[in-house]
Structure prediction request, 436 residues.
Amino acid sequence: MSSAKPGDKLDRLGVAVLGCGVVGSQVVRLLLEQETDLAARVGAPVELRGVAVRRLDAPRDVDVPAELLTTDAAGLAARDDIDLVVEVIGGIEPARSLILTALESGASVVTANKALLAEDGPTLYEAAEKAGRDLYYEAAVAGAIPILRPLRESLAGDKVTRVIGIVNGTTNYILDKMDALGSGFEEALAEAQELGYAEADPTADIEGFDAAAKAAILASLAFHSRVTASDVHREGITDVTAGDVASAKAMGCVVKLLAIAELNGDAVSVRVHPAMIPRSHPLASVRGAYNAVFVESDAAGQLMFYGPGAGGSPTASAVLGDLVTVARHRIQDTRGAGESAYADRAVLPMGETLTRYHVAIDVDDRAGVLASVATAFAQHDVSIQTVRQEGRGEDAQLVVVSHEATDAQLSATVEELRGMDIVRDVTSVMRVEGAE
Prediction:
């Protein structure tokens, strides 16, 4: 149990790091290399007093003094000389138990654990509140990009209406290559894996799980409501084809995997899916493995945050930023902003969310086809923005872009099209974001 209690002022701060992988090793490196500068920024010495690892003899990217290493993460989190715990293990357990142990033992916590925050953030927030300690997690979303603190603090006096972003570097790299080179999905994925932008098992990235966790955190902060990963409608990019990307180009658009959270009346909608956006939109120019988040609010208007969204050093930068802030609070015996969930807004099901669709339809090339397709849209109260025909004869294809309607209306329209005698196949269905 930490010997320092709320109300006690410290003349130095003991730090423990749980995990020494890609991010943890860089956190340790910065703590050791910048010890003097950190002390000046915080107002008191910041001392690394322990690093929890799975194996003492594992190779590491940083030379950690042997006396700091331990395999007893729980014991380290509960030590009475630890005032601040940095959790960079990831996953749900044992990370959740370790964070709760640290808070219950009187330590403040900095974490980069998006999966845990998106699944069970309220448990952690409540534990921090009960303990009178900070829980900071800037590094959980978009790596080095400062986006969570602006939402939690800088825009606390404003009304955020929409957050839309590219928050997964792996999928952005893949889609960027498909757009720039005309590559197919599998080819672009293989290149991303070869260059280290994608894991050997890329499921969490390409199926949208990673982005969905981040979307839940962004929505919770932006709209002062509890949103979990299970509330987020999620689609990945595995079905995006070179044809989809080419069709987007023909419309002056680019395909991106977007995390979108927006106010819809008294409720919020939160979704992750691939979408076409105009090349004039600021997010369209985000290339490679970079991330960007676009925020719209009543008073501030439109804001964009851009930078490297992953990697050991960029993520460690965000962790150290939180560490300095939390350390200052501990030295001064203050606390930062806690959870704000007063609005308690409901999360709309995807079917009630307003979207636009791009639909490519292989059709019979004969009189009356366009009228029949238009009728199918009209029967579901979906207005058509544009329609064009490509090819003739057996190669005839209609490309329809709708005006905004509910996702349920648009899905029903697509299902009806698939059942029509004049339709050979609906070859592409993709949502469209950005200005009409």
